[in-house]
Design a protein that fits this description.
- The complex is a heterodimer of chains A (105) and B (502).
- By secondary structure, chain A is mainly α.
- Helix content of chain A is 73%, strand content 0%.
- The N and C termini of chain A lie far apart (40 Å).
- Chain B contains 13 helices and 23 strands.
- The chains are: A mainly alpha (105), B alpha/beta (502).
């Protein structure tokens, strides 16, 4: 999972990499104002609350940062062939034959 | 730096560049040297694996996630031998008369564009799929539209021997899609055109092109060894797409003489919408895009198309995260999908620029009308999903993650206009257009009606960047038709260009 994320980040420009690192730092410290603790040491329920706040927050830049983070996590998980298989996604090179066989049944 | 001489250099090998190369190829018999420079690789047939992440890295700029400057939209820009024609679904519509009239380009008629379009419909084997090759995902869309009284049509497709792998957007693993990589470029090469892959053009200056060839990430080696090159030519045709072409011309210093360069960028901003059926449906077997609905194009400014995407692309298209998101993803074999395309207006401030390093930067602001269209499209799609029998729908602008079928009569309430939060909703585009728009003069356009850049008789543009406004349909056939015009003009002008001192 992390390999895919590392690869995706490595493909980006240094500017984008810096912006992403800055966003992660902000995200880590944002909860201190409300909960007095960093994101990574909060209880899971509070972590989720913080993430939902950032996802919908009024500052577009933060929303976009969260979208980028979310996209990377989804890439790391659903980009793996075994994850695709686990959710029932199994395209074949003879999809039309599958359709025709079903029609005959 | 090695120097090469050519008579015609074509930059890019997609719908525009590939067409120009093929149309000019007969000139090779007369000793005319034609070189096509393509930034992407040429994969071998067995390298089209259909694997999402692997193919996206090889065939798209930034793996298909090129972001606009404010990061509220991603652009899918193909990069391969054949350009974006390698990764489209092959939907082959011809542009309508009202669109050409709205373009208002002096000297460009619908009759001319249509006649040239029809040539490529024949050449690229465009036809309707047999009913037996339509899967549930497509049929359900058509059924839903018809039940609601929405106009729905079957897409003509440019396929030959399609096996229904469903992964068209990752490059066809069976070579069935008749893009320029299968039709025009091989024909051009047979006639003597040289195609140099993995070749990035950095600058066009005077009648010379600076380019760098890099080792291929996969696929066949380039025709030229890795290194920097300067290529002299009598005519240069820029076909690097609606982001790449204006960016190249801007970093070549042409912006001051051409104030419209890069401007009036449009892109059919798109949403992928997903619904869940109570039972498995055939969705990833068969061609993914067989029907479209233009019922709302005139009044509400959007088009709907069938589509079927891959796990990661589907996951990022759903808004939010958590249990609901995971539940929907786990039902992949029960998902029906609709692609929304908004018909966006040409705004002068929506533009391609370049950063200090010469890289393209796309500035795009969503107009209120486009935002409204996207929400209206979500509502219409939800109705189609439910009419087709879906048990729940996910609307990215919805108040809740799911809309259940029991709430199908409350769709307008459950998908409010205020729900379209930029930066939260995944908006993507695969139809970049404009930036080198055709028009009467350089004050408000970049080229004339034949793709010749105003004031530069040796420089031409042949790709979607020529569009003065969006095409309101999938654009590749129209790009080919315009490229055919550009090739004609280059052929006519070449003798006088060759006679000019460099």
């Amino acid at each position: 999972m992390l390999d895919l994320i590392d690869l995706a980040l490595a493909d980006r420009t240094p500017d984008v990499q810096r912006q992403f690192a800055l966003f992660l730092a902000v995200l880590r410290w944002v909860p201190v104002a409300r909960y007095g603790r960093r994101l990574d040491v909060l209880a899971p329920a509070r972590q989720i609350a913080v993430l939902r706040y950032v996802q919908d927050c009024p500052v577009q830049l933060l929303r976009c940062g969260f979208w980028g983070l979310r996209t990377l996590v989804l890439l790391g998980y659903y980009g793996r062939p075994d994850a695709a298989a686990a959710i029932g996604y199994a395209p074949t090179t003879n999809g039309n034959a599958v359709l025709h066989a079903r029609a005959r049944r | 730096m090695p120097e090469r001489d050519a008579d015609i250099v074509v930059i890019g090998s997609g719908a525009g560049g590939g067409t120009v190369a093929k149309e000019l190829a007969p000139l090779c018999r007369d000793g005319i040297r034609i070189v096509v420079l393509e930034a992407g690789p040429k994969l071998r047939d067995d390298e089209f694996t259909g694997r999402e992440v692997e193919m996206a890295r090889l065939l798209y700029v930034d793996s298909g996630g090129f972001q606009t400057a404010d990061k509220t939209m991603t652009l899918a820009l193909g990069r391969a031998y054949g350009g974006s024609t390698v990764v489209y679904t092959g939907t082959s519509l011809t542009v309508t008369r009202p669109v050409i009239e709205r373009w208002g380009v002096p000297g460009l008629t619908h009759e001319d564009v249509l006649a040239r379009s029809q040539k490529y419909l024949r050449e690229n084997n465009v036809h309707l799929l047999d009913a037996s090759d339509l899967n549930d995902n497509n049929r359900l869309f058509a059924d839903g539209c018809r039940r609601l009284g929405y106009r729905v049509e079957q897409f003509p497709l440019n396929l030959k021997g399609c096996a229904g792998t469903s992964v068209c957007n990752l490059g066809c693993p069976t070579g069935a899609k008749m893009g320029t990589h299968r039709v025009q470029l091989p024909e051009a090469e047979r006639q003597g055109v040289t195609v140099v892959t993995n070749c990035t053009v950095t600058r066009v200056a005077g009648q010379s092109v600076s380019a760098t060839v890099t080792p291929p990430p996969a696929g066949e080696p380039s025709a030229w060894a890795p290194g920097d090159y300067r290529i002299r030519a009598q005519a240069v045709v820029v076909s690097a797409g609606a982001v790449g072409s204006p960016a190249l011309m801007l970093r070549s210093g042409l912006g001051s003489a051409l104030p419209a360069l890069g401007r009036y960028f449009t892109c059919h901003p798109a949403l992928i919408l997903v619904a869940q059926h109570p039972q498995p449906i055939t969705n990833f077997a068969g061609h993914p895009k067989s029907f479209y609905c233009d019922h709302f194009a005139d009044d509400q400014g959007f088009l709907l198309e069938t589509c079927m995407y891959f796990p990661f692309t589907t996951a990022k298209s759903l808004a939010g995260f958590g249990d609901d998101h995971s539940r929907m993803m786990a039902a992949m074999d029960r998902l029906q999908m609709i692609l929304v395309l908004a018909i966006d207006p040409p705004e002068r401030e929506n533009r391609v620029a370049v950063d200090a390093a010469g890289r393209p930067v796309v500035h795009y602001t969503f107009t209120d009308r486009v935002r409204r269209s996207l929400v209206q499209a979500m509502r219409a799609s939800a109705r189609i999903f439910f009419a087709a029998g879906a048990e729940r729908v996910h609307a990215p602008a919805g108040r809740d993650f799911f809309i259940e079928s029991a709430d199908a009569d409350r769709i307008d309430d459950l998908i409010p206009f205020s729900g379209l939060t930029l930066g939260k909703v995944a908006i993507a585009s695969a139809h970049p257009m404009g930036g080198c728009r055709m028009g009467a003069g350089p004050a408000d356009a970049v080229t004339d009606a034949w793709g010749q850049v105003h004031g530069l008789p040796w420089l031409f543009v042949a790709d979607g960047s020529l569009f003065p406004r969006c095409a309101e349909i999938n654009p590749y056939v129209t790009i080919m038709a315009l490229a055919d015009r550009v090739a004609q003009r280059v052929r006519e002008r070449l003798p006088e260009l060759k006679a000019r001192p460099s």
